[in-house]
Amino acid sequence: MTQNYHLCNDLCVTIIRVKSATVTQGILRRFQSQRPIRGGSLLVTIFGDAIAPRGGIVTLGSLIQLAAPFGLTERLVRTSVARLAQDGWLVARRDGRLSEYRLAARGEQRFAEATQRIYSKGPLDWDGHWTVLILPPNGRQRRDTLRDGLRWLGFGQVSPGVFAHPNSDLHQARNWLQSLEVGKDALLLKACSEDVGIDQAVVAAGWDLGDLARRYKRFADAFAVVDVALTAKEAVTPESAFVIRTLLIHEYRKIHLQDPLLPPALLPSDWVGSSAYDSCAQLYGKVFTAAEDFLTATASTLEAALPQADPAVYQRFAGIRTPA
């Protein structure tokens, strides 16, 4: 009886592993079908999600090995890393023919900002006030250049030259605008409509929530099958866990960093972004520990193995919920 139990248990684990490998290959094929494959973008995800919490320094050889399961060639990794360094994201240190990379000052700042947004659900309430930015009427080309930076910070463009943000105070907004080199002739003020209809009109003008919802749904559907497959601790190898975790955050951050993170009062009921966040958090917790094992076995600095992860990493997604 006991022998039959062990045989059935081993068979179930084998089936789960095969299913896990199948779905892992599925999401890999989905990533590799994107043309062009943006090696630099994936390396940014690896740095932000995996390397930054483990000291923020890694050898080029380690990056090549970490990128290999995704189908990125050594040449593509070298080219992408060189471009990230040239753009001010990374800084290189060489020791003979070997080299390692760490985040540059600019990279550390942007990664800290992105980390706060990616792993946070967003505000739970709202005081009814908007921070409104009015750019000067001249300089349309400059306004167009600023628009992407302002959207990344959560501003919505409600009309030409007018942007609104529901969660920022004036002090924070001034610091943001300084980093974007917005001129002193721009006007920054607080506003309150005291009319939910007007607030909804601001949201409709400033953000395309329909498109955002569709992107969140595609993301949730793509990874739902992966979540279902991981029904046992033995279901995923460390390498597969690292692949799933990396692609999970890679796809999620592309959507979530475009999400203004509006408070619930300004969102549709049953907002799909909330359920996508919860699903991402659940799957992240399932693969986190095994992915860390792969990182430990694969990556290093020039001098030593990577240090243990910073305790702050376990506060991601309001506390990583790993399986018992």
Describe the structure.
- The chain is α+β, with helices and mostly antiparallel strands and 324 residues long.
- It folds into two domains: 1-122 and 209-324, no CATH class; 131-191.
- The chain contains eleven helices and seven strands.
- Strands 5-6-4-7 form a four-stranded antiparallel β-sheet. The protein has a three-stranded antiparallel β-sheet with strand order 1-3-2.
- A hairpin with a 2-residue loop joins strand 2 (90-95) and strand 3.
- Helix 9 (209-229) runs antiparallel to helix 10.
- The longest helix is centred in the first third of the chain and has 31 residues, at 2-32.
List the helices and strands and how they pair.
Layout (H helix, E strand, L loop, with lengths): L1 H31 L6 H13 L5 E3 H8 L6 H13 L3 E6 L2 E6 L1 H14 L10 E6 L5 H13 L3 E4 L2 E4 L4 H10 L7 E6 L3 H11 L2 H21 L8 H19 L15 H27 L26
Antiparallel strand pairs: 1-3, 2-3, 4-6, 4-7, 5-6
Q: How large a portion of the residues is in β-strands, by DSSP E? A: 5-15%
Query: What radius of gyration results from the CA coordinates?
Result: 22 Å
Overall shape: globular
Structural category is alpha+beta
What is the count of structural domains?
Answer: 2
Please, what is the average pLDDT? 85
Spatial strand arrangement across the major sheet: 5-6-4-7
Specify the number of helices.
11
Cα distance, first to last residue?
Answer: 27 Å
- What is the strand tally? 7
Order of helices and strands: HHEHHEEHEHEEHEHHHH
Largest sheet: 4 strands, antiparallel
Report the helical percentage: 55-70%
Regions with little confidence, pLDDT below 50 for 5+ residues:
1-19
